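Key idea: predict the complex, not the pieces.
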Amino acid sequence: MQSNGTRIAALLVTLAAVVVLFFVFKGGDDDNDSTSATTEATTTTTTQADQGGDEPKPKPEADEVAVIKVVDGQPDGGVADLEFSKGDEIRFDVESDTADEVHVHGYDIEEELPANGTAKFDFPADLEGVFEVELHSSETQIAELTVNP
Amino acid sequence: MIRRAGSGTLLIAAWALLSAAVTAVMLPAAASAHGLVGRSDLPLPDWLFAWGSSIVLIVSFVGLTLGWRSVRFENYDWRAFGGAVAAALTGRVAQILAGAVGVVLLVFVVWTGIDGVDAPDRNFSVTFVFVTFWLGTVVLSVLFGNVFRAFNPWRAIAHVVAAAFSAIVGQKQTAPLSYPERLGRWPAVAALVGFIFLELVWGQTGFAASGVTPQTIATATVAYSLYTFVAMGLFGIDRWTDRGEAFTQYFGMFGSLAPFEVREGRLGRRPVLAGTTTWALPAGSLALVLTAIGATTFDGAQEGVLKDAISSTFQTFSDAGLSPVTALRVTNTLYLTGTLLAVAAIFWGGIYGMRIVDGKRSALELGRKFAHAFIPIALAYLVAHYFSLVVYQEQAQFTFLLSDPFGDGSDWFGTAGSGINYGLIGATTIWYVQFGAIVVGHVIALALGHDRALSLWKDPRTAAYSQVWMLVTMVFFSVLGLYLLSQANG
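Result:
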C-alpha cells in the first residue's frame, strides 16, 4: 500500500524524468526539425529571398532578392511570405505603380516608395518573430516577414 | 478490474489524441499578425509541440494510476493574518485609496478614448483596457487574490453616492429588489461575452486598425458603467459586485488560485489552489470558466487553425453584398459562437462519461462540481497566448503611453520618446513560456479534478475511474492549446 507522499513523489520523479529526457533529446530534435522546417519553407514559400536549402551552404548572392509588386495599392499575387533566419541580411524590394511609403513593423523601418519606382530594403535580421510589412497610406499588408531563431 | 478498464480506456483515448495531434502538425503552419503589436509570435515548433503533448499524456497517465488517496484541497483552513499591516490592507483608508485609483483610471480611459488620437497603438485607452487591465489584473489576481474587488471603480462610486444619499436623506437605503440566486454569475457571463465580442469580433484581429477605436472603448466603458450603476441600485452594491459584475467575477475566478482570501473584512491565508474548491458554487460559474477558455481558443484559432475557413466564409458574405467590415464581423461572430459551443460540448462530453461511474448524480451537478478544475487551464491558455503581448505592450504602457496618453505630442514624465523593445525576449523564451504554461496548467487541473473526485466518491478506485473521462477532456484542452500555438501566433 503506497502512501500519498510516495505517490506524489513518484509523480514528481516521473515528471522530472520526462523533463530531463526532453532536454537530453531536445538538441537532436531541434536540429532535425530546423532542417525539415527549412525544406518546407523552401517548397512552400514563393517569394523566398535568402534562405538556404536543406543543406547548409553559402548564402545566395543579392541577385535572388525578392520583389514585391504593388498594383493599385494591392500586393500582386497576395500577401508575400518572406522568411529569414536570425543573423541573416534581410533584403527585398517593393515596386509600385503609385507613390506610397512602406513600413516594416517591429523593426520600424520606413522607406519612401516613388510612383513607378522601387523601395529597396536591406537590414540585419536581429529580431525574431513574425512582422507585417505594410503600405503606410492604406495600412494594407503587402508581406509577412518571418525571422526564425 | 474497474481500474484496469479505466487505464485501458485512457491509453486508447490518449493514443488517439496523440495520433490526431501528430497528423495535425503535418498541416502547414499559417501565421498573421496583430494590428496593435508590431511583432507576433512564431508558431510553436513541431518538436516542442510533440514533447508538450507527450508530457501532458504521460503525466496524466501516471497521475491517474498513482492518484492520491486522501482529499487535500477541500474544506481548507483559513487563518487570519495578525498585525497592523494586514489590518491596514483591508482597512478604510486602503479601501478609499484603492477605490480612488480605480475611479481615476476609469475616468482616464473614457477621457483619452474621447479626446486622444484615433491611432489605437498611440492612445492610452486601448492598451490599458485590453492589456494592462484585462491581462495584467489576471496576473495580480493569481498572485494576491481578488484584488479587483478593492479597485472596482463602479463599486467605489456607488458606495460614495449611497453614503452621500444616506447623509442627506438621513436614513440608510436598502436595495429595492433581492437578487435572484438562480441567476448566479450569468449576468457576468453575458457581459464577459460582450467584452470578448468587442475585443475579438468588433476589433477583428485583436483590435486591429479598422476595428476598435478609442472612441468605441470610451462609449463601451460609459455604457457598461451606467448598466452597472443601475444594477447596483436595484440589487444592492455589494450583492451585484459579488455576482453580476463581470470583471470582479472574471478576475475573482483567477484570484481563487491565490493563497490570500478576505473573510469578513479580514485578510487571511489559505493553501494555494484551495480557494477554487468553493469558487464554482454559484450558478453560471461553469459558463464563466468555459467562456474564458473559449475566448482564448477563438483568438488563437482565428489566426491559424480557422484562418482559411474564416476567409472563405468571409468571401461568401462579401459576395452576398455585405461590406467587408460587416462581412468580417458577421463571420467572426459565427466562428466565436461556434468555438464557445464546441468548448462547452467537449466539456460536457467528459461529464457525461463520468456519469458511467455514478448515474445518481445529474450531469449538471457533476459539471458544476468539476468546473473549478478548468480554471488552471483557462489561465494556462491566457499565459500561453498573451505572454509576449503583455511584455511588449507594458513597455508602451509605462513609456510613451504614460507620458503621452492622448498621443498629442506631450511628454509628462520624459518617457514619450521611448518605444517598445521587441528584442527583449527571444522566440525560444516565448516558446518555453507557452509550453511551460500549458504543461503546468494541465498538472494543476489534474490535481484539482482528482481531489474533487475523491471527495465525491470516497473509494479511490471509483474516483480514479471517474477521472479517466475528466482526464481525456483535460488532455484534449491541453493538447488543443499547444496545437493552436503550433499553428498560429497568439
